[in-house]
C-alpha cells in the first residue's frame, strides 16, 4: 500500500506541474505505454491509482495531448464510469472527460462512437450520486457534451429530459446550486429540442425572474439567459411561454443592468410571433421603453431603439401605431445633437428612416405634432432634423444603415418640400457617397447593389447551417421584407429624382444641379441619369 501511495503522490505532482513539465515529459508515450496499463489493473487497492490516473489525464488533456490519441483517451475514461467502479474513480473520470471535451482540439467526429456509452453512464452516475453539489458536477459534464455534440445528442436525451424536473426540485433549498443548474440548463436548451423542455423550463424561468421571490438575487441573470435561449431555439409560442413576458416590465424597472438582456428577449418574442406578441403586449413594451427614456444610459438607449426597430421591421403597421407615444421623443432626441454621441444618433435616425419608408404621411404628421409641441413650424423642425441627418450619415460605417438612410433621403426628394430642396446639394452628396459604398461596378454595363439578396445567394441557402438557432433563421427571413435588402438603391434614387424633376420642371432641376459640386454630379452619373 505504501508503494501505491508513493506512486499516487508522484502522479499528483506531475499533474499539478503539468505546465512546468511541458518540455520534460512525453505524455503521449507515457499515456500509451504506462498509464493505459495502470487503468487496466483492477485490484481493489489500485482504485487509488485509477482515480489519480484519470485525474492526471484530465490535467494533461488540454496541455499536451495529440489529437490522434484522443479516441484512446475516451476509450480509457469511459469504462471508469461504469457502476461497478469505485465512486471516487467514476467522479474523477467524469471530470477528466469534461476537460477533454472542453478543449479547442475536440472533434465531434472522433467522439461520436463514444457518445452513447458516455452519455448513458454519466446519466446513471447523475442519478446515483446524492449530494447536490456532486450532482451538479456530473450535470456540468453532461452539459459540455450536449453543447459540443449539438443535435447528435437528441437520440439519447429523453431520459435526461425526464429527470431534470426532479433534479430541480431536489435543489430547492440551495439557491447557489440552482444558479449553477440554470446556467447548465442554458447549454441543454441550445443543444436539445426546446419544445421537449418548455413545460419544465417555463416555471423555472418564472421563479428566476420573480422579484418577489428571495431566490431572484441568485437566479435573475441566469434566468434571463435561459429565457432567451428558450426563445432562440423554439419554433412556436405556446401560451405558457407568452405569458412569461409579464415579468419583463418589473425587471426593467428593477435596474438598468438588465435592459440589454430584456431587450434581446423582447426582440426574440417579436421575431417568433410578431402579430401575436405585439397585439398582446405591444402597449406594455412601448410603455416600458417610454419610462426608461427619461433616465437611461447610452447602452440602454441603444437596447430600446433595437426593440422599436425590430418591431417595425417585423410588423410595420402595428408597430408604428403602437410606437406613437415614443416616436416624438425620438424626433426630439434627433433634433438635439449637442449631448448625444453620433453612433446613438444613428440609432434614432434608423427608426425615423423606417417610418419614412413605411409611410411618408405618418412621418409628416409626426413632424407636425412634434413641431407644434415645441412651438416651431413644420419647416423649422424639419430643417433641424435634416441638418443633423446630413451630419450623422457620413460618419456611419455600416453599409446597411447608410443604404437605409439613403433610401429615406431619396424618398424625401419627391415630397415637394422647400427645406429638402434647400438642402439638395448635401442630400445628393450623401446619397452618392452611399451609392459609392454599396454599388459594385463589375464592368461598364454591370452594377450590383451589394446588399440585395440575389438569386445566386439566397436567404434560404443561408438557413441550411445546423449551427444557427431558430431565432437566427427568423432574423434572416425578416430580410426578405426589409427595404435594405429588397430595394435596389440605384433604381430607387433614379425613380425619386425623376419624380423631383417632373415636379420642379426641367429648368428648375438644372438650377438644382448647378448647386451641386461638379465632382458629385460626375459620380452620380456613374449610377443614374440626371
Fold and architecture overview:
Pfam families: TPR_IPO11. Helix content is 71%, strand content 2%. The chain contains 29 helices and two strands. β1 and β2 form a beta hairpin. α6 runs antiparallel to α7. About 2% of the residues have low confidence.
Label this structure with key terms:
530 residues; mainly alpha; two-stranded antiparallel sheet; 29 helices; 2 strands; 2% strand; elongated; ARM-type_fold; TPR_IPO7/11-like; Importin-7/11-like TPR repeats domain-containing protein; ARM-like
In short:
This protein has 530 residues and is an all-alpha fold. The chain is built from 29 helices and 2 strands. The longest helix has 26 residues.
The profile of the biggest β sheet is: 2 strands, antiparallel
Radius of gyration: 30 Å
Strand order, largest beta sheet: 1-2
Distance between the termini: 95 Å
Quaternary state of this entry equals single chain
Mean pLDDT: 90
User: How does the helix and strand content classify structurally?
Assistant: mainly alpha
Query: How many distinct helices?
Result: 29
Segments where pLDDT lies below 50 for 5+ residues? Answer: 455-465
The share of residues in helices is over 70%
Amino acid at each position: 500500500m505504501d508503494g501505491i501511495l508513493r506512486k499516487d503522490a508522484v502522479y499528483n505532482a506531475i499533474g499539478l506541474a503539468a505546465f512546468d513539465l511541458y518540455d520534460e515529459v512525453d505524455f503521449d508515450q507515457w499515456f500509451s505505454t504506462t498509464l493505459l496499463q495502470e487503468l487496466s489493473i483492477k485490484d481493489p487497492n489500485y482504485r487509488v491509482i485509477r482515480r489519480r490516473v484519470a485525474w492526471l489525464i484530465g490535467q494533461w488533456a488540454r496541455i499536451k495531448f495529440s489529437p490522434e490519441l484522443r479516441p484512446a483517451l475516451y476509450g480509457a475514461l469511459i469504462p471508469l464510469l461504469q457502476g461497478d467502479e469505485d465512486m471516487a474513480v467514476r467522479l474523477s473520470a467524469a471530470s477528466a472527460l469534461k476537460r477533454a471535451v472542453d478543449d479547442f482540439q475536440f472533434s465531434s467526429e472522433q467522439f461520436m462512437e463514444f457518445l452513447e456509452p458516455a452519455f448513458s453512464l454519466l446519466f446513471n452516475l447523475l442519478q446515483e450520486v446524492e449530494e447536490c453539489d456532486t450532482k451538479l458536477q456530473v450535470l456540468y459534464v453532461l452539459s459540455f457534451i450536449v453543447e459540443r455534440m449539438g443535435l447528435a445528442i437528441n437520440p439519447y436525451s429523453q431520459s435526461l429530459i425526464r429527470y431534470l424536473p426532479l433534479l430541480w426540485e431536489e435543489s430547492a433549498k440551495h439557491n447557489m446550486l440552482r444558479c449553477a443548474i440554470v446556467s447548465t440548463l442554458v447549454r441543454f436548451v441550445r443543444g436539445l429540442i426546446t419544445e421537449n423542455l418548455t413545460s419544465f423550463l417555463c416555471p423555472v424561468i418564472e421563479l428566476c425572474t420573480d422579484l418577489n421571490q428571495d431566490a431572484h438575487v441568485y437566479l435573475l441573470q441566469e434566468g434571463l439567459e435561459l429565457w432567451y435561449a428558450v426563445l432562440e431555439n423554439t419554433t412556436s409560442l405556446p401560451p405558457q411561454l407568452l405569458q412569461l413576458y409579464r415579468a419583463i416590465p418589473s425587471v426593467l424597472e428593477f435596474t438598468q443592468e438588465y435592459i440589454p438582456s430584456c431587450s434581446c428577449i423582447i426582440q426574440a418574442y417579436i421575431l417568433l410571433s410578431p402579430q401575436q406578441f405585439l397585439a398582446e403586449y405591444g402597449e406594455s413594451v412601448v410603455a416600458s421603453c417610454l419610462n426608461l427614456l427619461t433616465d437611461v444610459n447610452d447602452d440602454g438607449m441603444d437596447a430600446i431603439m433595437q426593440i422599436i426597430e425590430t418591431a417595425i421591421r417585423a410588423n410595420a403597421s402595428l408597430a408604428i401605431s403602437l410606437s406613437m407615444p415614443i416616436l416624438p421623443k425620438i424626433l426630439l432626441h434627433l433634433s438635439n445633437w449637442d449631448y448625444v454621441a453620433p453612433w446613438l444618433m444613428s440609432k434614432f435616425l434608423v427608426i425615423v428612416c423606417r417610418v419614412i419608408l413605411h409611410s411618408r404621411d405618418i412621418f409628416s404628421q409626426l413632424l407636425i405634432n412634434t413641431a407644434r409641441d415645441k412651438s416651431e413650424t413644420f419647416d423649422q423642425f424639419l430643417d433641424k432634423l435634416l441638418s443633423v441627418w446630413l451630419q450623422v450619415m457620413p460618419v456611419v460605417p455600416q453599409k446597411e444603415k447608410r443604404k437605409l438612410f439613403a433610401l429615406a433621403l431619396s424618398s424625401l426628394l419627391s415630397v415637394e418640400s422647400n427645406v429638402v430642396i434647400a438642402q439638395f446639394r448635401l442630400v445628393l452628396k450623401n446619397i452618392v457617397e452611399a451609392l459609392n459604398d454599396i454599388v459594385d461596378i463589375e464592368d461598364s454595363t454591370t452594377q450590383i447593389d451589394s446588399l440585395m439578396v440575389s438569386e445566386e445567394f439566397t436567404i434560404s441557402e443561408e438557413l441550411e447551417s445546423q449551427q444557427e438557432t431558430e431565432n437566427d433563421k427568423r432574423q434572416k427571413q425578416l430580410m426578405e421584407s426589409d427595404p435594405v435588402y429588397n430595394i435596389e438603391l440605384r433604381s430607387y434614387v433614379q425613380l425619386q429624382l425623376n419624380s423631383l424633376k417632373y415636379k420642379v420642371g426641367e429648368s428648375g432641376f438644372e438650377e438644382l444641379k448647378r448647386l451641386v459640386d461638379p465632382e458629385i454630379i460626375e459620380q452620380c452619373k456613374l449610377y443614374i441619369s440626371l
